[in-house]
UniProtKB/TrEMBL annotation:
The lineage of its organism: Bacteria, Bacillati, Actinomycetota, Actinomycetes, Kitasatosporales. It comes from Actinacidiphila alni. Keywords: NAD, Oxidoreductase. One of its GO terms (molecular function) is methylmalonate-semialdehyde dehydrogenase (acylating, NAD) activity. NCBIfam families: MMSDH (TIGR01722). Its EC number is 1.2.1.27. This is methylmalonate-semialdehyde dehydrogenase (CoA acylating).
Length: 510
């Protein structure tokens, strides 16, 4: 956070909150800088919400809820379909908004939008998803049925690395189910949320159903304590996820808080090493490693370590690192200068801890950058990493792949299961029996068999285990529907004279 600087170039953009269908017009006391990570230039200032501004957004959401919850499922679904059409038509524009502030390459931003659209499409099926059950004649002349109802205003707090997709894991289902939302995106790349707000309005969503407040801890804290916020969906680093879960649940809210990750890819001796090396490079360095499902630890079962490291080195030589908006770039910069410096510091600590720096990303050429201010770090590989080294123990969240060598499947599995995180993992093998055993034994929420980034499709649910998720429901899919609705069971009888009489006994079935 910083205060608005005098003399800031007039060309920088001003990003503000979206409340009750329009941009906020107040004067913010605090702002944050937004960067173009490929040049390092400040391209905008984002307003930071005070508690009072958060209250305005929650008020708008509470008022809109009174209408939206009574809006027919058919009408709600109609808005969802229109939103989906607009997203499809303007996905390229949205991807460009993401690239400009996050730095990832355009094709990757398009991929993130596509995965978000999947959830919108799933939410278009809300009539089917919230259908209740009905039991005729549960007791004589008595029917029992269940319905699911919305909760009210809900908060969605998201990280920088997927500024469109992660909010879209939650709000399509929340809105389809009849809730209203307040989104608090990352202050590092805030514009995608405002772009989505505009699309909702164009799709015909009533004002106040979708609101955006920008900011930092102050905004998050107010959302966590606000009595009208009924549920919180959070995605971010583990310490903040734990804090959000504990604070939100203490305030009586339903909370799902998805945290950080250290995803291991286990390669067995029978695997195709070329395919495994391709997968490790794609999943390790895509989006500069700033994915919660990135592979950050490659576990090579003897004797495949040397062959894998050699293949990975060869592939890295051919990777073009450059601005996300340039067609030839495979990997862009990191999100901020501070994050790049933090990740780069691990290169020194890894060496100090005794790991072998097999590829030093500081030496990787950057192609097509304007000036030398971008937040660059090339793909980096550490070999012979062990638990206890900071490059193994910490979530680095950058283009740094650690290779751990193990003697057996059992040793690799024990390593993965001992890790405090349990977001994603992958096994590379041609042995179906080993794969079946791995999926059964591994203590991780999302598992890929020869699939390096096993993000479940929208009709399953996304979520890790252990320190990667606090709460008991995962994102989207059936869990998402359950999270954003609450159940009611109704026992019904239409009275006739035979039902008269006094009976103080507990009702039983007859
Ligand atoms: P972050 O935890 O710094 O921020 C996430 C959100 O919390 C942001 O909106 C931020 O403004 C807010 N926040 C930051 N500090 C806060 C504080 N002290 N109190 C209250 N709110 C605070 O995370 P990030 O750097 O934006 O994103 C990267 C992290 O997110 C990584 O750890 C990554 O693994 C994780 N992530 C996890 C998943 C998943 O599905 N498990 C998905 C994407 C990202």
């Amino acid at each position: 956070m910083r205060h608005r600087r005098k003399g800031q170039p007039v060309t920088t953009k001003h990003i503000t909150h979206w409340i009750a269908g329009k941009g906020w017009t107040g004067g913010a006391e605090r702002h944050g800088d937004v960067y173009d990570p490929a040049t390092g230039a400040v391209t905008g200032q984002v307003d930071f919400a005070s508690a009072d501004v958060v209250d305005q957004a929650v008020d708008a959401a509470r008022e809109a809820f009174q209408q939206w919850r009574h809006t027919s499922v058919a009408k709600r679904t109609g808005v969802l379909f229109a939103f989906r059409e607009l997203l499809n038509a303007r996905r390229d524009e949205l991807a460009a908004v993401i690239v400009a502030e996050h730095g990832k390459v355009h094709s990757d931003a398009l991929g993130e939008v596509a995965r978000g659209i999947e959830v919108v499409e799933y939410a278009c099926g809300i009539p089917q998803l919230i259908k209740g059950g009905f039991t005729e004649q549960a007791s004589t002349g008595v029917d029992v049925y269940s319905i699911r109802q919305p909760l009210g205003p809900v908060a969605i707090i998201s990280p920088f690395n997927f500024p469109a997709m992660v909010p879209m894991w939650f709000f399509p289902l929340a809105i389809a189910a009849g809730n209203t939302v307040v989104v608090k995106p990352s202050e590092k790349d805030p514009s995608a949320a405002n772009f989505l707000a505009g699309l909702w309005q164009e799709a015909g969503l009533p004002d106040g159903v979708f609101n955006v407040v920008h900011g930092d801890k102050a905004a998050v804290d107010r959302l966590l304590e606000h009595p009208d916020i009924k549920a919180v969906s959070f995605v971010g680093s583990t310490p903040i996820a734990r804090y959000v879960y504990e604070t939100g649940t203490r305030a009586g809210k339903r909370v799902q808080a998805l945290g950080g990750a250290k995803n291991h890819m286990l390669v067995l001796p029978d695997a195709d090493l070329d395919l495994a090396a391709d997968a490790a490079v794609n999943a390790g360095f895509g989006a500069a490693g700033e994915r919660c499902m990135a592979v950050s630890v490659l576990v090579a079962v003897d004797p495949v370590g040397d062959g894998l490291v050699e293949r990975i080195k060869e592939r890295i030589k051919g990777l073009t690192v450059g601005p996300g908006c340039a067609a030839g770039s495979a990997m862009g910069p990191l999100v901020t200068g501070a994050h790049r410096d933090k990740v780069t510091a691990y290169l020194d600590s890894g060496v100090a801890d005794g790991a072998e720096l097999a590829v030093d990303g500081r030496g990787h050429p950057v192609t097509g950058a304007e000036g030398d201010g971008g937040f660059w770090l090339g793909p980096t590989v550490f070999d012979r990493v062990r638990p206890g080294m900071s490059v193994y123990d910490d979530e680095i969240f950058g283009p740094v792949l650690s290779v751990v060598r193990v003697a057996s499947y059992e040793e690799g599995l024990a390593l993965i299961n001992a890790n405090p995180y349990g977001n994603g993992t992958a096994l590379f093998t041609n042995d179906g029996g080993a794969a079946r055993r791995f999926q059964h034994e591994v203590e991780v929420g999302m598992v890929g068999i020869n699939v390096p980034i096993p993000v479940p499709v929208a009709y399953y649910s996304f979520g890790g285990w252990k320190s990667s998720l606090f709460g008991d429901t995962h994102a989207y899919g059936e869990d998402g529907v359950r999270f954003f609705t609450r159940g009611k069971a109704i026992t019904q009888r239409w009275l006739d004279p035979s039902h008269g009489g006094i009976n103080l006994g507990f009702p039983t079935n007859s």
